[in-house]
Amino acid sequence: MTTIKLVFGNTEVFAQPNDSQTAKAFAEKLPVTIPVGGTGIDFCGRMPFALPYDEADVHSGWVNGDVNYNPHGGWFAVLYGDEEHSGRYGDQVVMGRIEGSELAKVQSLDGDFDLRIELA
């Protein structure tokens, strides 16, 4: 699958989607803008649409850098911190990853954004 670009204001970050049905359906809906708020561990916002998912892909926790969908709450999240305590958060479906220097860009951001997501 192609790379996706996430635009936080003037900062562009690139992520690699996985091959899940959720990630593929999300890519088909792009471009999209999602208002997100920073929490210190993620940027999270309500999705403007629902996505299909395989129940086997739903789990608790994340790895820093995950781009996740919360199917029962309808949330989109870019997760960049608190991996070690993330197991207490359920209903996570990983759609892709942000790695290395791209993740460092996200970790340096603060505030709320109208996050623009598009195919790169």
Automatic annotation (TrEMBL):
<feature type="domain" description="Cyclophilin-like">
    <location>
        <begin position="7"/>
        <end position="118"/>
    </location>
</feature>
<protein>
    <recommendedName>
        <fullName>Cyclophilin-like domain-containing protein</fullName>
    </recommendedName>
</protein>
<dbReference type="InterPro" id="IPR029000">
    <property type="entry name" value="Cyclophilin-like_dom_sf"/>
</dbReference>
<dbReference type="Pfam" id="PF18050">
    <property type="entry name" value="Cyclophil_like2"/>
</dbReference>
<dbReference type="InterPro" id="IPR041183">
    <property type="entry name" value="Cyclophilin-like"/>
</dbReference>
